[in-house]
Amino acid sequence: MKTMLSMVAAVAILFSTNSAIAQNNYSISGTDEAFENGKTAYLTKYEDNEFVVISSQTIADNKISFEGTTSEPARRYISIGEITPNEAELFFYFYLEAGDMTIEKTTGVRLGGYTVKGTTLNDINSQYKAAIENLNERYSTAHQAGDEQAIDAIMAEYTATSKAAILANADNLVGQDILSNDYSMFDAQELLDLLAALPENVQEKFAAIKANAEKALLTEPGQPYIDFAEPGLDGQPISLKSVVENPANKYVLLDFWASWCGPCMGEVPHLLETYAEYHDKGFEIFGVSLDAKEQNWRDAIAKHKMEWVHVSNVKYWDTQSRKDYAVNSIPANFLIDCATGKIVAKNLRGEALKEKIAELLD
Prior knowledge:
Shape: elongated
Number of domains: 2
Number of strands: 15
Strand content: 15-25%
Distance between the termini: 38 Å
Helix content: 40-55%
Strand order of the largest sheet: 13-12-11-14-15
Radius of gyration: 24 Å
Order of helices and strands: HEEEEEEEEHHHHHHEEHEHEHEHEEH
C-alpha cells in the first residue's frame, strides 16, 4: 500500500511541477496491428448523452493520427468502426490537451487495451490506472483462492489509492473523473470531505452526488430507520414499520438485492444460515428486490428457499426506497434495532452478519 500511495504522490508532484504549454496545438498518434487498414477511426466527445464525432480518418499503415487545437483539457474518445463503446471494434478514452500524445498498448482492461502518454493529465491517468490494474489482478487472484482477508486488504488499498489520487488531483479532470467513477466506495462523510476539496467552480456538477451523500448520512448507524412500503409477494403493500414493530422481532435486516446481482446471490448462503439460526430468537429480514422482471424475483426466492419478508415494485433502480436509503450499489443492508428504531450497523457481508447477530442475540 505504501508503494501505491508513493506512486500517487509522485504523480501529484508531476502535475504540480509540469510547466504550462504555451501553444494550443495537439497531436495524438499510435501504431498497432489492431488498427486495421481501411477501417475508420473516430475522435469523439460525449455531449448531451451521446457521442459526437470531432474528426475521423481512414486507417493506413496501421496508424491512428489526429491533430488540431484545443483551448482547454477535455476527456475524449478514440474508436474504430463505430463511435459507441458497445458497437465499436476498439474504444478507449484519453485527455485531449495541448502537446504531443502517443497511444500505447496496455494490458489494462479499464484502459480499453490502450493508454495515452506524453502530456500531463494522460501521464497521471496512465500511472493511476496501472496501479488500479495491479490491484485488480491481485483481487482476482485472492478471489479465486477464496482469501477473504486478502480481498479486504486489497479493497482497502483500492479505496486509499483512489482517495489519494482524488486529493492530489482535485483541481484537474483526472481527479474529478476518478471521483465520478468511484464515489460509491466512500462512506458519506468521507465523500463529502472529498467533494469539499474540489474547486468551487466544478462542485456544481457533483451536486447530485453531494445530495446523495447528505442523504446517506441519515442512514448511518445511530440514525432512525426510514419507513416505506412496497408490494409483497401477494401484491399487497408491506411497510418496513410493520415488521420493525412486530413484537416477535428484535432486529430487522433491511436488505437491498436483486436476482441479477451476482454478489447479492453470493450473500444468500450467509443470509440463510443466519436466518435459520436466529429467526426464532427475534431476527427478521426485510428483503427489497431491485429486479426488473417479477418472475425472476419470484424464481430466485423459491429456488433458494428465502423464507423471510420480501417486497419489490419490480422497477429496477427506479424505486423510492433505495433512493431514501441512498443505495447506489447492491448488495446493501441496514440492521435495525426494533426496540429503539435505530440503525445499528450497515453493509454486513459474509460472516460479519452472523457474527453481529450472534453478538446481539446470543
